[in-house]
């Protein structure tokens, strides 16, 4: 899906919500917890309950890898359940030297036909470039993450005066255009969005951290929205585990609807 | 395997070689290239040919992920072929927020019983800590990598005067002791090893980049060795693809032997 198509979808659904399928088997509703097919039943119900309210799904590969080989099969099956008009993101945070990055691009873009992959920037340009070879696919680079540990290195002040994450944004924006690259910026960092928008005015930002991690949808939208919206806000745990009972899908839908309604208001106010 | 056991093994085999099983199906010997079990036959022969000459094997997960679900099965089967007295490293360069890092630790240390995992440092302390929960397992953090892209961010000068990779070493060394943490330092960066050893004198370093990438075994050993050797030098492509003919295993053994013989000399000179 290209940038214009994504923008069009956002306007149509009045939503820039990405639903994170970080499905943790230990947090499934009780009646599904000990069924081997529990994760798939759960994911299917969540996708059906939320698809009218979101433009994207994000699969956090860790939760599937944690189930070993069987987990990769579940990921493959989950992928097939997602409607083709959604932007499907592998949240895998890969990053390695050129020939290895090439193999990861093959894994996620060809073997598993994801539309986008999250990537760690530490190894630099040649670790990112292989993900930009296919113009229909997106590389989503970590810039400023939502966790406490983001303070350790991302916020270090460089000799030139910039912070490390600012340098990452600035440099990476020369490797790939806003048509192919996005950046991860945690919702807990909303106060820094005006600075970030000065460096990357046109790029989409993938924003985790609304919900369970405490970031504000209103603040992110106010300071981060650009002329083509430019935001995908992810919610995972707050939707997936809205109820631990048999009504989990309805509860997930209600939570997604609440977010979508707030997004509709933000679109009216800030777009 | 703990640090003392690793040191003992190195002295016994007179080798600090780690053989990288970055098995690329397109580079298999011709007679194995189109067999579905080709990768497994190849890995088995390489392991048998090299196990007397190395103390560790490193599986680069990208090359297995690139084969989809079938690739994870191959990784699982390859793991079972490796003798239990070797340090088995998953070169997966993971890194994510706490609950996700926890899931990756489960994937690599429990589902797949690796001894060690490579980790990207960009997301900071809470993305690394979950890998240190089990005292028998190792976290191997990227510090200064062997590729061109290492110049982009790792070599940035901070306001405090240090380079970013030096700060990563310094900070991360406070999170885990030399008994549980190693650092990746590319062999192409041998000139910086004296500085690195001032920051982390006691830690093992995992050193890729000898062989195909052009780093010098002699220089790495001269500047990087500590009192317990403190080096695992990885070679992948130079061993795996020493011959593309039916004699690939013998050729791999000959290449590994050449490296081991050089290591024996370095141990005599620098330990």
Strand percentage of chain A: 15-25%
Largest sheet geometry of chain A: 8 strands, parallel, barrel
Supply the CATH superfamily name of chain A: Aldolase class I
The Rg value of chain A, from CA coordinates, equals 18 Å
Biggest interface pair, counts: A-B, 61 and 60 residues
Helical run tally of chain A: 12
Strand arrangement in the largest pleated sheet of chain A: 1-2-3-4-5-6-7-8
The average pLDDT score of chain A comes to 96
Q: Which structural class fits the helix and strand makeup of chain A?
A: alpha/beta
What letter string, H or E per element, gives the SSE order of chain A?
A: HEHHEHHEHEHEHEHEHEHH
Short recap of the structure:
Chain A is of the alpha/beta class and 271 residues long. The first copy, chain A, is 42% helix and 16% strand. Chain A has one domain (3-270): Alpha-Beta Barrel (TIM Barrel).
